[in-house]
Specification:
The complex is a heterotrimer. Chain A is mainly alpha-helical. Chain A contains 12 helices and no strands. Chain B has one domain: Orthogonal Bundle (MetI-like fold), CATH 1.10.3720. Classes of the chains: A mainly alpha, B mainly alpha, C alpha+beta.
Amino acid sequence: MAAQSAGGGGRPTVRTLATLLGPAYVWLLLTIFLPLSAMLYFSFLSDVPVGAREAELTLENYAAFFERDFYRSLMLRSFQLGAVVTGLCLLIGFPCAYILAKSIKGRAREALFLLVILPFWTNALVRVFSWTMVLRGNGVLERAVNAVFPEVGPLGLMFTYPAIVVGLVHSYLPYMILTCYVSLQAIDDDVIDAARALGAGWGTILRRLVLPLAAPGMIAGAVLIFVPVIGSFMEPRILGGTQGTFIGTVIEDQFTAVFNWPLGAALSFLMLGFVLALFALAAPAFRRLDG
Amino acid sequence: MSGARRLALLGRAYLALVLLFLYAPVIVMALMSFNRSPFYTLPIRWTTDWYVKLADNDALIAAGLNSLLIAVVTAVLATVLGTAAALAFRRYDFPGKRLLQMLLLPPIAIPWLIVGTAMLVFFFWIGLGRGLHAMLLGHVALALPYVVVVVSARLSAFNPELEEAARVLGAGPWQVLRHVTLPFLAPGLVAAALFAFAVSFDQFVISYFLAVPGVSTLPVEIYTAIRKGFTPEINAISTIVIAVSTLVLVGVARVYRFGSAR
Amino acid sequence: MAAVSVSGVSKRFGPVQALDGVSLDFANGGFFALLGPSGCGKTTLLRLIAGFDAPDAGQIGIGGERVDGTPVERRNVGMMFQSYALFPNMTVADNVGFGLRVRSVPWPERRRRVGEALDLVHLSGLGDRRPHQLSGGQRQRVALARAIVIAPRVLLLDEPLSALDKALRVSMQVELRRIQREVGITTIFVTHDQEEALSLSDRIGILRDGRLVQEGPPRALYERPATAFAATFLGEANLFAGPVDGGRISLGDGAALCPSGPPDPGAATATVAVRPEKMRVTAAATVPETGWNWLDAVVEQHIFTGSSLTYLLAWRGGSLKVFEQTLGEAVAVPGEAVRVVWRPEHTVPVMP
C-alpha cells in the first residue's frame, strides 16, 4: 500500500501519454522550440537565406556586438533600466503585498488583491498608452501640479527616461505584488507572534523572519520583471520617443525595418546569454536569501 | 488612537495610493475618450462622438473581429490541449515528466520580443508566412502554460479515489470522465479558458511580428495608430479593450476565486 | 465454494515487493479481516481483487470465475474507500444510485433500491443532501449504501473506520456487522487495528511484508499464533527462546519451560509465546502446581487500570508483562521478588 501515491502511481501506456501530451508538446515544438532553434541558426548566418541570396556560416553578427560600442552601451542601458524598474517594483510592491497579506482580512483582502493584480491581465499596450494622457504636455499631471504650484510651469515628462520607467513600473508592479503576496501569505502568523513573544522588535522580525521567508517570492518577482523589461520595445517607443532607444528597440528594428535578421537574432541570444550569466552570478546571493 | 491602529490606517492609505497609481491613468484615458476636444482640453465637454466614429473605422472593426476570433479559438484549443497535458501530469509518473513540465516555462519566461521574432523567422523560413493562422499558432503556445497551471491547481484538489469509486460502481472510462472528473474540473476549465482568452485578446508583441498589413489585431492597430499620433479615437477603442478584458477577468475571479487562502 | 479465491498472487511496485505468493480463500457470506502493519500489502491485495491493478503472478477468482482480464467496472464488486470518495457534485441519492444509473437500471426501480439502501443504513430522508452537509458517520453510511446497492459479489472495505473518532468507530463496527449479516454479503475488510479485526470478523488473515503469516478464526489465531510476529501483533505476548532439551526449552540456570506441544523436532532452539493474562504472579518461592511452568522475576512497576492490573517484571535484563484481574488480593510492590507461574498448555511454540 505504501507503493501507491495519491495520484501518480499509475503506469501509463506510451499510447495514453502520447494522446494526452502529444498535441500540446507538438504545438510547443512547432511554435516555440523549433523557432528558437531556427533563430539560433540564423544568428550564425551572413545573410537571410531567401531566394538567390547566398548565406554562409559566420561569427560576424556576434563579433559586431563586441566591436561596436553602440550595442554594448545599449545593452548596458537596458540592463540598467531593468535594474531600476525591478528595484522600484520591489520597493513599492513588497510593502503593498505585506499589508494585503498580514493587515487586511477576509473578503476585503480578496477584493483588494483582485483589484491589484487585475491590471496585469488587461492590455499592457493600452495601459502604457494611457500614461501618455497623464504625462503629456498640458496633460492631467501637469495641470494638477500647476493648479497647486503655479510657478512650476511645464514638467516636460513625456518622451523622457523617467516616463519609460514610470510606464514599466506600472506595467510590472502587479507581478511583484502577486509573488510577494503568495510567499507572505504562507508565513504562519503564529511564527511572527512567537518572535514577538520572545521579545523581538519589528526591525528584527522583518530582517530575520519576514524577509528571509518572503525571499523566494521576491526573487521570483524580480526575475519575472527583469527579463521582460530588458526585452521591452513597445513601452520605450510610446513613452520614450527619441529617448527610447534600448537593445529591445534595436532588435525590433532588425526584424521590421532594417531586415538584418541574423544580427537581430545574434543580439537576441546575446541578451538571453547575459541575462542567464547575471542569474548565474546572482545565484549564490539568491541561495543565501533563500535561507 | 493606538500605535497599531495608526499603522493599520497608514497601511490602508498606502494601498490606496498604489491602487491610484495603477488605475488613475486608465481612468483618465477612459474619461478623455468622452471629451469633445481632440486636444484633451479640460474641463471635459461630454460626447460619445469618438465611439460613433469607431463604427466607421473599417480597419479597426476588422482588427477587432480578428482579435475576438483568435481569442475564442485560442481559448478552446489551449484549454483542450492544456487540460489533456495537466491530466497526464497529475495521473501518471513517467520518465521525462520533470523535463516536460520545465518546457512549459520558456513561453512564459523568454521575452516575447525574442519568441515573436523567432516565430517570424521560422514561419517565414518554412513557408508558413504571417497572418491570422500564424498569430493563432503563437497565441495558443503562449496560453498553454497558463492553462496547465490553472487546471493542475484544480486537479490537485481532486481525490483520485473518486474515479476509482466510480469505476468500481461500474462506470467505464468515458462515464467516469463525464460524471465525475469533468463536473469537478468544470470551474477550473472555465477559468482556464477565460485566462487563455485574456492572454490572446491582450497579446500585442507576438501579433505585431506576425501581422500582415490589412490582417491584424486590435492591439496592433492601436499601436500603429499611436505611432501615427494620439487621437481620442484611440482612447475610445482602448477603453473598450480594457473593459472587455476586465469583464473577462472578473469572470475568472468569480469561478476561480484566486487570492483566497485555499 | 469460495466467494473469492486468491492463489499464488505476487505484485511488485518498483523496488517494493508488495505481495509475495499469497493464497487465500474467502468463504461465501463470511466477514474476513486482512490485518497487518502499514506496508504489509493488505491494501494492495484488496486493490488486486477490485481490479485496480493486475497481479504479476497468480490468479484471482470471484464467484468461481477467473477475473484476470476483467476490468474494474465489470467485476461487480462493492468497495468502500478510506476517504469514502463520495461524489461532491451529486446528492446522497444520486451517489447511492450512481452504480445503478451506469447499469441503466430504469428510474422507478432505481429509486426503490436507493430508498431501500438508505433505509438499511438508517439514512432515509437525507437523500437530497449533499455530501458536505453530512457528518463523518453519515458519510460513511452513504458510502456503504452506495457500495451494496448494486448487489455486488463481494464487499471490499479499505480501513473504512479509520477516519472516525473512537466512540463513533465502536458504534459503526456494530452497525457494519449488522448490515453485513442482514445482506449476507461476503466482506473483506482491511485494517491495521487488531481489536477491530478480532471483534468484527469471522476469520482473520495476518499479512507481513507481502506474505500471509497466518489465517484462521480470531479465537484460534489468538490462542495458537504460528509465529512470534502473529503473537505480538494480535494481542500481547511474552516470548522465550532457548535450546531444546528433551522436549523442554532450556532457559539456562537449570530453568526450563514445558511447551504445549512438541517443538519442531529438527530444530536445536525453539521460541514460545505466553499471553500476559495466562500468567500469575505469586509470592517468591511458592511451589508451583505439578507440571506448571515457572520463573522468578522482580516487580518493576504495577499499573492499575480498573478491572485489571498490569505488572511489568524485570527478568534477566529483559521485561515481562502480566495481566491480573483485580480480585482484591495482595498486590506485589515494586522491588519485590516474585514467582510467575502458568500452565504448560499456554506455552505456545511459535516460529521465531
